[in-house]
Amino acid sequence: MTTIKPRTMTGTCEYLPEMQRHFSYLLNIIRTTYASFGFQEIMTPSFELKDILLSKEGGETEKQVYFIQSTGALEQNKAPDAALKFDLTIPLARYVAEHERELAFPFKRYQIQPVFRGERAQKGRYREFYQCDIDVVGKETLSIQYDAEIPAIIYNIFSKLNLENFQIQINHRKLLKGIFNHFNIPSNLYEETLRTIDKCDKIGIEKTVETLETLIPKNDVKGLIKLLTYEGSIESTLTFLSNLDITNSDFKAGLDDLKTIFEHLKNMKIPETALKLNLLIARGLDYYTGAVFETILTDHPNIGSICSGGRYDNLASKFTKSNLPGVGISIGLTRLFYQLQEMDFFKTLPQTEKYLILNEEGTDPKTLYDMAIKLRAENKIVDIYFEQAKLKKQFKYASDKAFSHVIFKDHAQDQFLIKNMITGKQIPCFNR
Amino acid sequence: MTTIKPRTMTGTCEYLPEMQRHFSYLLNIIRTTYASFGFQEIMTPSFELKDILLSKEGGETEKQVYFIQSTGALEQNKAPDAALKFDLTIPLARYVAEHERELAFPFKRYQIQPVFRGERAQKGRYREFYQCDIDVVGKETLSIQYDAEIPAIIYNIFSKLNLENFQIQINHRKLLKGIFNHFNIPSNLYEETLRTIDKCDKIGIEKTVETLETLIPKNDVKGLIKLLTYEGSIESTLTFLSNLDITNSDFKAGLDDLKTIFEHLKNMKIPETALKLNLLIARGLDYYTGAVFETILTDHPNIGSICSGGRYDNLASKFTKSNLPGVGISIGLTRLFYQLQEMDFFKTLPQTEKYLILNEEGTDPKTLYDMAIKLRAENKIVDIYFEQAKLKKQFKYASDKAFSHVIFKDHAQDQFLIKNMITGKQIPCFNR
């Protein structure tokens, strides 16, 4: 019989068990930190109805949607009525609108699930990848303190990972709008100006200036760029902004918000070295209306933002007439995991404590079972090698599978020993 | 603006946060028990290439497959080249064959992921549901002790859940084959006879007899049914089988296996009350070749098996020429969760310990942040109510969201109190 070559689809990820353990380690730190701030978990279905998922206009991401069709529907040549979710934001909006009466607001939820995009195959682009989202959704109002809590949570996660050189960069959409207004940029060009500025870290300052000059007068571009590229501590940047001769209400509102957010972050004991007021951060998504966040690894700026989000005025206007302001952030877990691996980040991750009981010919299996039961009652991970094999092979199995301890019989002393596979130290079993 | 009715697709599940907590509780017990026996986690992509997923013949389940197509492919009217996985067995086979050289055998893996089936919409049928699979895959050989370990793990899970009245039922495909052979059932009718017997708990004994009589002589049906419906303890059933005048090698091999498996289960300290040798268990899937398992809730026999599996000779013949025998079992988590809810199982689940710090007007937020930081450093879950609201409303929020503790200021004593929301007891904060 000819066999079919076993392979996965381009753009999907799967890991060998040890790598999967690293992935789960990362996921678990994110999960427990989210939970420690009182966020509740939700999970939504992998697919949603077409009219829920897609807007009439159809943005960039929507072009990458994966439709699903059962064999029957396909045979009948029906148009698909559902598609795989491509982010966790639309499902959240649908969820909150659908369950509005059953939820207590502010609703703080986290969600860690795969999302799907029909990307063209290329390195670092995934067709299925995990997102770890956290959002606070208010009803009618939402305290600005949540705009500080979100980056505080992100700080907590990356601190727990001992990821030293990261920086959470914060800016404000209203502040930018006020600045654009000050430079007489017509409001129909705001969106394009935002997008151009947002790409600055990728395309460089010269190219940014070039593009902006196709939109607005050269002199204004010069002033705008000079303002936005101001470099300094948070305090000096805030002072710099306060001293500018800009008086429109958007600018003022944005600046006030930023002052409040940084003040709260200070009180939340987030060190200033992990934060930055970066006036060039804009975020492409047009639904952000207040603070915006990005997170970069300062030693690897080329990676771009590993975690982004912001404040929005209204989460679910498509599904409900209620006004639901919110603030949230999303970690692209699959991509972050890939980057951390490239940085050899998991090399130093301690082994899991787990025990392999070796199985010598002639040993009563009952003895081995009893040991396993005893150890598992102590919440230990215990495996027994059931195959008939030489001890040498069993020891190799233990090291291949990264068992931290091996248990075997010392015939001279007629007792079982536990060998620590890392230190090599051996002690009698159950006399620890 | 008209809004779109927020709703999910029929046949998908999502839960409100408290129910999601119950789901995660269940999932977590399964996960940690699987891990405690030394199984390693893997996750495979949600979709696989068509030729990997589907066989040429196309079984019942394959008709329910969900194909996926990106917008681009759909517009070009291309035939889909990938589909969502409908079980975790084919992905396991593909995974083991693909990574054969990188894995240490016996390979013990668990996998907890959603699978997808284009089911017609009806109660208790899901289009997306979680499966929790555990398998041991050997290379060329696999010790029969693993056939005992699998039900032992299932016993551990349901014991930890305090689910008292469950029973793991075990039978053997070779034993059945030997019995069929004894009753002169032609081998081309084995499969159909198996399926008929397997349905006996659903359709009843009379209907089973009726169907069997269309296949084999009436007298043989009578003998066969009398044999298969033998009721007794494990020991007496084994004795009954040993004393039968059946001499073919399949029967003998099956009986020997069963004796060995039950002997090991006894040594693993699995109580006999949780086990049964049920000669009517057959399992529909034709790839089982040895022991087969089902698990029933004895107070709810109508539910059917909540967890099934068995031994197979060769996992991945489609993908590799290596001989990979294995044994495994699968818990249908979404369905089990639904059943447990119907039984009011989660009513007694203790609340999560979590703290809400109330936010009275005029309090310095720094004081609240400091308390939160302190408590989180003790690994506690802590939320601060950031909105401006009356204390009464904040207390209501705490009870709506099932906070176990609320922290608020006692102005008379000028100190913060922790109120236990279950007992009502109040103690000073940080003098615990």
Per CATH, the superfamily of one domain in chain A is: Anticodon-binding domain
Assign the CATH architecture of one domain in chain A. Answer: 3-Layer(aba) Sandwich
Main sheet makeup of chain A? 8 strands, mixed
Low-confidence stretches of chain A: none
What strand line-up does the widest sheet of chain A have? 1-5-6-11-10-9-7-8
Q: Do you know the CATH topology of one domain in chain A?
A: Rossmann fold
Which characteristics define this entry?
homodimer, 432 residues, alpha+beta, Rossmann fold, eight-stranded mixed β-sheet, 15 helices, 21% strand
Task: Describe the overall structure.
The structure is a homodimer of 432-residue chains. The first copy, chain A, has 432 residues and is of the alpha+beta class. Chain A contains 15 helices and 16 strands. The first copy, chain A, has a domain at 354-428: Anticodon-binding domain (Rossmann fold, 3-Layer(aba) Sandwich). Chain A has helices at residues 17-36, 50-53, 71-75, 89-98, 145-160, 173-182, 190-198, 200-203, 205-213, 218-228, 234-243, 249-267, 333-342, 365-377, 391-400; strands spanning 40-41, 47-49, 66-70, 82-84, 107-116, 128-137, 166-172, 275-277, 288-297, 307-312, 326-332, 354-357, 381-384, 405-410, 415-420, 426-428. In chain A, the strands form 3 sheets. Chain A has an 8-stranded mixed beta sheet. In chain A, strands 13-12-14-15-16 form a 5-stranded mixed beta sheet, covered by helices on one side. Chain A has a 3-stranded antiparallel beta sheet with strand order 2-4-3. In chain A, strand 14 (405-410) and strand 15 form a beta hairpin. In chain A, helix 11 (234-243) runs antiparallel to helix 12. Chain A is elongated and about 90 Å long. Strand 3 (66-70) of chain A pairs antiparallel with strand 3 (66-70) of chain B, so a sheet runs across the interface.
